[in-house]
Amino acid sequence: MTKARLFRLWLVLGSAFMILLIIVYWDSAGAAHFYLHTSFSRPHAGPPLPTPGPDRDRELTADSDVDEFLDKFLGASVKQSDLPRKETEQPPAPGSMEESVRGYDWSPRDARRSPDQGRQQAERRSVLRGFCANSSLAFPTKERAFDDIPNSELSHLIVDDRHGAIYCYVPKVACTNWKRVMIVLSGSLLHRGVPYRDPLRIPREHVHNASAHLTFNKFWRRYGKLSRHLMKVKLKKYTKFLFVRDPFVRLISAFRSKFELENEEFYRKFAVPMLRLYANHTSLPASAREAFRAGLKVSFANFIQYLLDPHTEKLAPFNEHWRQVYRLCHPCQIDYDFVGKLETLDEDAAQLLQLLQVDRHLRFPPSYRNRTASSWEEDWFAKIPLAWRQQLYKLYEADFVLFGYPKPENLLRD
């Protein structure tokens, strides 16, 4: 009996010592040593996107063995999906409604980095940090610490441990193709046992499937009480980036794609309540198709009323397609290394892939050019009352200021 007790005691002490050793090693060596292609502060220039094969195990270092042990010890494993094959995504037929709304242009573009791009990034980050530290700009959640962000609000932060990258995706800002890039970099989806290497070969419906990405909100399930600590380590070591666009133009784009196209989910969840509350319709068709045939569509004015209605967020937070960027990506709690903009997407994408040192192996996919241009703002807001426009600006002011977009004075005065 005594020997059994001693054995259990040594087992408990040994386990505790091993956990302490892992934590100390992580703090001193950093996450960089736990993954291939990741240096102390930036990714190595080594060959990204390794091809799986019988020699792959021989390439793993002792450090990756430590990482594998950590995952097994904490009862976590990364699952990869063997998805059915689909051909490269094709644009809608010319003249179709979807093409009209989205404005597809699938021709490849060769963006060249200008010598001023480094300075441009420094300016964007300086503006962001400056206003986060400046008390003159106040908005909800600005002052809270990273530890105070609820786990449910960390779902937009996608992690690629292979190349040391963290991407905060913002809907309506080229996020579909950036998610594709993250899938290729991380190798998180398999087709017939092999990771995707061409971003455009990844079917669109799988791109937005949450199971295709490792996001911060999943860390608790993987790492338990160590999750916040590991998040902070990765935030310190990895390259963190996001892409933004003019807030009002993003709203117009969200309205067009979700309410001008037949979308059953958005019709039932959002259009029906909007039509009842703001258009005085009491009897509505059960489907978006029937509603469109009957000429029953949400107007842009109805959409603005919905956003400004104080009861809207008492029922549920804004949908991610029109939720403010500062609420999706927490730019005052996370020090982003790269701030891209849709207005300069081609140049910024090329610069970012170079920063991640994957530009020789991967190009940002050619994608549609959304014709929802800033020049359209006056037309879209022409029938929106001035008071509503002013209230809407206050609602999205933080996104305008933090990311250096000029105040749309022409829309905010008579």
From TrEMBL:
Pfam families in UniProt: Sulfotransfer_2
EC number: 2.8.2.-
Molecular functions (GO terms): chondroitin 4-sulfotransferase activity; sulfotransferase activity
Keywords tagged on the record: Carbohydrate metabolism, Glycoprotein, Golgi apparatus, Membrane, Signal-anchor, Transferase, Transmembrane, Transmembrane helix
Transmembrane segments: 7-26
Annotated Basic and acidic residues bias: 99-125
GO process annotations (BP): carbohydrate biosynthetic process; chondroitin sulfate proteoglycan biosynthetic process; dermatan sulfate proteoglycan biosynthetic process; proteoglycan biosynthetic process
Region (Disordered): 80-125
Keyword Membrane: yes
Localization of this protein: Golgi apparatus membrane
Membrane topology: Single-pass type II membrane protein
Cellular component annotations (GO), alphabetically ordered: Golgi membrane
Family under the similarity heading: Belongs to the sulfotransferase 2 family.
UniProt-recorded name of the protein: Carbohydrate sulfotransferase
Gene name, Swiss-Prot/TrEMBL: CHST12
